[in-house]
Write a structure and sequence with these properties.
Layout: H1 2-19, E1 20-29, E2 33-42, H2 47-71, H3 74-80, E3 88-100, E4 104-113, E5 121-132, E6 135-138, H4 152-166, E7 186-189, E8 192-197, E9 210-215, H5 216-219
Parallel strand pairs: 2-3
Antiparallel strand pairs: 1-2, 3-4, 4-5, 5-6, 7-8, 8-9
Length: about 230
């Protein structure tokens, strides 16, 4: 039985790899910046993969352009004159956490950038795409619950408890302020949902970036678990 499970996991992994081409968008201006993003492009042609590919590429270009604009303004040029290392960089890596080409795609991006501060900045970008009423859409958490009603209070409690268990040292004595709107910072996986939070977003900056995985059971009876299996 164990061998069968291992074979299934291996085949699933190979199938997923065959459906995804890792793309790279990179540019460099010596003495100013280096930007590089690795992101998935889905090979199978469906209305949803076309939509997802377009939306992800648009974000990749926009986020890089914003960074380049910020680090090439007059203030940034002046700041470089007093720095030992004037080369600033932006690195982003995106991966698919769920790929069902006809009905559900989820992608998590982790971005690191430096623009002259005391420390680099790290943050997340998430994408969740699906079909609603026959049309490709970006999904929110409400789309995964019956009648579109999210049990926000219960989910906040579970996330807070899991974060404090996982990050006992870094969150010791710190409060977690988790707003309803921040519950849309998630990606879908085969066995549940992972919520991600940028540094400083829901607690003190010293805690860094945070992730909390909620299983199907954690998400409660109103969660549309069948969406993860279709």
């Amino acid at each position: 039985m164990r061998a069968a499970v291992l074979i299934f996991i291996l085949i699933s992994s190979l199938n997923a790899s065959a459906q995804i081409q890792v793309q790279q968008l990179k540019s460099k201006k010596p003495g100013l910046y280096t930007v590089e993003t690795k992101y998935p492009r889905f090979r199978e042609t469906t209305t949803l993969t076309r939509f997802a590919n377009s939306m992800i590429l648009d974000w990749v270009k926009h986020d890089q352009e914003e960074y380049i604009t910020a680090v090439t303004d007059e203030d940034s040029i002046e700041l470089r004159k007093v720095l030992v290392n004037p080369d600033w960089d932006y690195q982003a890596e995106c991966r698919a956490t769920m790929l069902r080409p006809k009905n559900l795609i989820s992608v998590l991006c982790h971005i690191f950038q430096y623009s002259g501060g005391a420390h680099p900045i790290a943050y997340y970008q998430v994408f969740n795409f699906g079909i609603l009423a026959g049309k490709e859409r970006a999904l929110t958490l409400s789309n995964f619950f019956l009648h579109g009603v999210v049990p926000t209070e219960e989910i906040r409690k579970v996330i807070t408890r899991k974060l404090k268990t996982q990050r006992r040292n870094s969150l010791n004595g710190l409060s977690v302020d988790l707003k309803d709107t921040e519950l849309d910072n998630f990606v879908v996986e085969r066995d549940g949902i992972t919520f991600v939070f940028d540094q400083c977003q829901i607690t003190a900056c010293v805690a860094g970036e945070l992730e909390a995985k909620l299983t199907i059971q954690d998400l409660g009876p109103e969660f549309k678990k069948d969406l993860l299996k279709k």
